[in-house]
Amino acid sequence: MLLKPTLVLISLYWVFSGASLLGMVYTRGVQFLHCIANTYEALCCLAFFKNLQSYLHFTGYEWTGRSLLNIQLPPVCCCLPCLSPISNSKANLRRFRLLIYQLIAVQATVEMFRVLATFDCSFHPQALRTYIMDAMMIISFMFGMWPIVIVLRIDYHRLTRYKCIKKFLAFKVMIAAS
Known about the structure:
This protein is mainly α. It is 71% helix and 2% strand.
C-alpha cells in the first residue's frame, strides 16, 4: 500500500532534475518539460496524502465522524474564517482527496494550455491570460495543499518528532532549485 506513493515521492528529484537538464539541452521543448514537472509535482501531493492516510491508518486513527477537524488552517485560513469544524468522516476524507485531484487536473490543464500557446507562438508573459492562469494555479495549489495540512494536524503531536514541516519546506526548496 505504501510502495507506489513512496516510489513516486522518491523519484520526484529525478523527474525535476531530468526535466531541467533536458530543458537546457532542448530549449524549444522547455515549456512541455515544465508541464511534465508541474503535473508530476501535483501527483506527488496525492502520493504524500496517501502516505499520510496510510500512516494514520497504521497508528489506529479511524475516520468515524465522531471528532471534529479544524478547517481554519493555512494556506486558506484567511478565506474561510466563518466555517465551523467538520467531522472526521469518510465522506470528508473523499472530499479532501477530490481537492487534491482538482490540483492535478488544474495544473495539467493550465500547463497544457501554456504548451499549446508556446507552440502556437501566442504565449506572452505579460498578457492578461497569463496572469489569470497563474492565479488559477495558485488558488488550485492552495486548495490542494489544504487537505494535507488538515490531515497533518490530526496527529501533529506524534508527527513533530519527524519534523514534517521542515521536510516539506526542504521538498519545496528542492523543487525550486531543480
